[in-house]
Design brief:
Blueprint (H helix, E strand, L loop, with lengths): L6 E2 L1 E4 L15 H14 L3 E5 L5 H13 L4 E7 L2 H10 L6 E8 L2 H8 L3 H16 L5 E6 L6 H14 L3 E6 L6 H14 L8 E6 L6 H10 L4 E4 L13 H10 L1 H4 L1 E2 L7 H12 L20 H9 L19 E3 L5 H10 L6 H17 L3 E2 H12 L7 E8 L7 E8 L2 E8 L3 H13 L3 E10 L8 E9 L2 E9 L2 H20 L8
Parallel strand pairs: 1-10, 2-3, 2-9, 3-4, 4-5, 5-6, 6-7, 7-8, 8-9
Antiparallel strand pairs: 11-12, 13-14, 14-15, 16-17, 17-18
Helix pairs in contact: 1-2, 1-11, 2-3, 5-6, 6-7, 7-8, 14-15, 16-17
The structure holds 3-methyl-2-oxobutanoic acid and zinc ion (ZN).
């Protein structure tokens, strides 16, 4: 319930910009669009869709998002140079509601070593470029980069100059995650004292990195001291140790509304789905003990805890898992469940598939229920996710056999199908996965360099569905792939084919004559 005294905190999501800067998290324009649509369902206020100066693909992605996503403000990041601002104009030309975000470093270390500029030059550049941006955008956000390490008097001066030049939001970044909560909260209070329009006529934002694991704590301290916008990413992904995690901030504000006296408009029920989609598309696996969205966040192992929970949930759970879109139930279906029950269960989980996706998902469910006694909600979500983010299956998996003996190299025989034609190959390798990948290379004629491989189980038990996430460089593109199966080698093959098919979809690759 919203109390009139509670302050609205604007959620500025930068998953598609700072989040994508996370090593290995690069996304295609279509993947970015899919995430942006989910962020709209999550009801974030602002989506920072990218950094147009980074590449032509980035401009394309921002334009696609601008055309399709209407409720949140769409924002593009720009350095303080007119040509970057012009690119942001181009990228945002279709947006219904748009924001330009300009940044310039202000701390002594950045001024002296990175920019080689004096304070007076920084001030001049900031004012000039904010004014230039204001010619084309009503909504301009200004970030003095590395604000947390900037001399306070100079920071206050730059901030006021930015406001006078027309900035409608001032963002205070802790770029290197150096601050402590008490100090960062105090910095926010200091800035408001110096520029009383902040947090009122001019939005006061914070942008915290997680190098000391304090990004969320610093953001909450800033809110308590008057900030009214928070910049964050789903799953906390971002440069180095990441950004403040959206779900932790939203749930912190919601769970401790007694203390925070604030609210966000985040649709909390969409948190779990958002987290999974982003993990799936970026290939960045969420650590099991991650607050709110980790696999273990609502798992209770100790007997004492389980007993308490059964008597009264709140004894050991401060958040009802249903609140963030997790279903309360566990075992849902088995081999004898029909199509109707399957569809109903998906609907209950908030998953909508079109008729063709439903057919394929149901087929996959039947296969899985032959291999596994009980199908859990998480299994269903994994199956549905495979359908939702499906890309054209240029290469389809047909068959796999592994022969291995202690002390010798394992051998894999693989069969793949492409446009009705089946091709087989065999190879040995350093391990069964390597052998499979080498056999696939023989079939497709395409070399891939694996940069990341991670395996985890979707549910518990020895017949659990295994999920493999990979990253590979294929034809010069770094792509992620994900595959699920009760057989982890098969899941590895599926993940590899998923990545390969993505490259085909992205560059329209024609077949190289298979062996
Ligand atoms: O961390 C940072 O300072 C940034 C700015 C561009 C806001 O990402
Ligand atoms: Zn950042």
């Amino acid at each position: 319930m919203k109390s009139s005294a509670r302050r609205k905190i604007y959620v500025f999501d930068t998953t598609l910009r700072d989040g994508e800067q996370c090593p290995g998290a690069s996304l295609t324009p279509d993947e970015k669009l899919e995430i942006a649509k989910q962020l709209e369902r999550l009801n974030v206020d602002i989506i920072e869709a990218g950094f147009p100066a980074a590449s032509a693909g980035e401009v394309e992605a921002i334009q696609k998002i601008s055309k399709a996503v209407k409720t949140p403000v769409i924002c593009a990041l720009s350095r303080m140079v007119p040509k970057d601002i012009d690119l942001a104009r181009e990228a945002l030309k279709f947006a219904k509601k748009k924001r330009l975000h300009v940044f310039l470093a202000t701390s002594k270390i950045h001024r002296e070593y990175k920019l080689r500029k004096r304070k007076s030059e920084i001030l001049k550049l900031a004012v000039q470029n904010i004014k230039y941006g204001k010619k084309f955008f009503d909504d301009v956000e200004f970030s003095p980069e590395d604000a947390a390490r900037t001399e306070r008097a100079f920071l206050a001066e730059v901030v006021q100059a930015g406001i006078d030049a027309g900035a409608t939001t001032v963002n205070v970044p802790d770029t290197v995650g150096y601050s402590m909560p008490i100090e960062f909260g105090d910095l926010i209070a200091f800035l408001i004292k110096k520029s009383p329009a902040l947090g009122k006529k001019v939005n006061l934002s914070v942008h915290c990195h997680n190098d000391l694991g304090l990004a969320v704590a610093n953001s909450l301290a800033a809110i308590q001291n008057g900030a009214n916008q928070v910049e964050c990413t789903v799953n906390g992904i971002g440069e180095r140790a990441g950004n403040a995690s959206l779900e932790e901030i939203a749930m912190g504000i919601d769970t401790r509304r007694d203390l925070m006296n604030a609210y966000t408009n985040i649709n909390l029920k969409e948190i779990t789905k958002s987290s999974r989609l982003i993990s799936h598309l970026t290939g960045l696996v969420v650590q099991p003990n991650k607050a709110i969205v980790g696999r273990n966040a609502f798992a209770h192992e100790s007997g004492i805890h389980q007993d308490g929970l059964l008597k009264m949930r709140q004894t050991y759970e401060i958040i009802d898992p249903k609140r963030i879109g997790l279903s309360g139930s566990e075992i849902v279906m088995g081999k004898h469940s029909g199509r109707h029950a399957f569809r109903e269960r998906l609907q209950k989980l908030g998953i909508k598939l079109d008729a063709a996706q439903l057919d394929q998902a149901f087929e996959r469910f039947k296969e899985l229920s032959d291999q596994k006694k009980y199908i859990f909600d998480k299994d269903l979500e994994a199956i549905a996710e495979d359908q939702i983010s499906q890309i054209p299956e240029t290469w389809q998996f047909e068959f796999l056999k592994i022969a291995s003996e202690t002390g010798s190299r394992p051998e894999a025989a693989i069969r793949l199908k492409r446009e009705g034609k089946v091709t087989s190959a065999a190879s040995d390798g350093d391990g069964p996965v390597d052998a499979c990948y080498r056999a696939i290379e023989k079939i497709t004629g395409i070399k891939a360099r694996l940069t990341h491989y991670a395996i985890q189980s979707v549910t518990s038990g020895k017949d659990a569905l295994g999920e493999v996430n990979i990253k590979a460089v294929i034809e010069g593109h770094e792509v992620s792939g994900r595959g699920t199966s009760t057989d982890v080698i098969e899941a590895s093959v599926k993940a590899y084919l998923f990545a390969l098919n993505k490259v085909y979809a992205r560059i329209g690759k024609k077949p190289i004559s298979p062996i």
